[in-house]
Request: fold
Amino acid sequence: MLYSWYRWILPFKSNIKLGGRSYSKREGLYLKINDGNSVGWGEASPLPGFSLETLEDIIKIVKKKDYLSDISKLPSSLQFAIYNAKCDLQKQFDSPFKVASALLAVGDLDGILNQVRQAMDAGWQDFKIKIGRGNQDDEIKLVNCVAELTGAQHLRIDCNRAWNFAKAKRFMLSLKHKIAFIEEPTISPVYYNKLSKYQTIALDETLLRLNPEELSKATKGILVCKPTILANINRLLSEKWPLVISSALESPLGISHLAKLHSECSKLSAGLDTLNFFEADTLKKFHGNLKIDQGFIDVQERIIPKEEFLEQL
Reply:
C-alpha cells in the first residue's frame, strides 16, 4: 500500500480572526493511499494557535519511515488524515445528513437579522453566533432578537471564553428563552456546573485540557469536537454526551470527511459552514463539490484534490 503526501495552501477571502490571531490562508497536507485498486484521500491541517502540533511537525513525522507503526501516538491532525483516507479508500460513509449552523458574523443588528432571514429562506434550521467581544447589552439584544426569529432551540452561541462568572450569569439571565447551547462562556470551566442551571453549556477548547476522569465529572451538556485538533473521538463517544462535529477551517476535503463522520455519531446538526471563507477559486482545485441544499450536505459525492495544484513531499 502506497502512502503519498502533498502540501497545499488555500487563501481566505479576507483575514479571519480567531483566538487573538489573524489568518490569511489555510495550509496543510493531503494523504493519498493507493492499494493498487483504489485510492483514498485524507487531510492533515493543524490550526495554528489551537492544535498542539504544527504543520512543520507533521511534515517531519511523515518523512520518517516508521511513523505508521503506532498511529494512536501520532498528532491529532495526522490521525484524522489517516483514518479518513482509509475510510475513503474503502468507500465508507455514503449517506446524506443534516448540516448545521449557518455561522453568523457579529455586526449591525439589522444586517444579522437579514442574514438569518436569507438563510432560513434557503432551508437552514440551526444558527450560530459568535459573541463576547462587544457591548454585552447589545449582544443580549442581538441574541434575543435572533432567537425570536429562528426559535430559541435553533440558536447556538459561542462566547470563546470571553467572560468572567458574573458577566456570563448576567447574560444568561437576560435571555428570554433557553437556547440550544452556549459554548465556552468563561475563561475557566470551573463555573460551568453553576452556569448550567441557566442555559445548556457546550465544551470545545476545554476538551483539550480534560483527562477522562475530569470529563466524566464535568457538567453534562454538549461536546463540540474538532477532530483535526482532538482526534480521540472514541473517548468522547464513550461518555455518551450529545456530540457536535465542528470545523477547524479545513479545506473542502476535510469538511466532507467531517460531514461523513458526523452522520455516524450524532443526531444534532454539525458545525461545518466555513467554506464560504475561502476564495471561490478554491473549489476549482477539487473534483466534485459539497452540495448544500436546504441546509443539508450531501456526502455521497467524493471530494478529490487535483494533484496538479499540489506539491508532493
